[in-house]
Amino acid sequence: MTVPLQRLTERKRESILQAAIAEFRSSGFEITSMDKIAATAGVSKRTVYNHFPSKEALFAEILNRLWNSITAEQDMAYSPEQPLREQLRKLLQTKLHMLADNNLLDLARIAIAATIHSPERAQDMVARMGQREEGLTVWIRQAQADGRLKAVDPEFAAQQMHGLIKTFAFWPQISMGQPCLTQDEQIQVIESALDMFLARYQV
Prior knowledge:
203 residues; mainly alpha; Arc Repressor Mutant, subunit A; Tetracycline Repressor, domain 2; 73% helix
């Protein structure tokens, strides 16, 4: 049975992306070459360039995947009938589940390492992030419109909430190699963050 050409193309593209992630992780962005990525992916250098015109474009696609993962909770819609705490708890549980994914943590390490020495690359990453409004920001805005949260910049409040979470469930794992939170630790972090957020902003 012949595999459709489109599926083969998608497989090659995915192989290239996975090879690039592996090489960026082991050698860093600057040292990694398109030749090495091609060899690791088991494809020709020409095939790599057919999918990605440059190493920067390939890296940008990896950053896009990272951002898509980080904003995965975006589908959580605000409900005027449900208690705020219950809705926020579900959002934070989704966030913590995502932050416990080793593949995502690897992507985040690659992104951070590659942008530390390149302000231009860091600015591009921030610009890409700004193009997509996060789920928690949207949720906060909707809860404000419903009169259940105080008037405050939704992006500011969302960043505060993320800070409360990532202090325990992202930065220690990224910067110091600490293990992901246990289930009990996740519950403790979530409930504490909810206490602080709702005490400040709930009407």
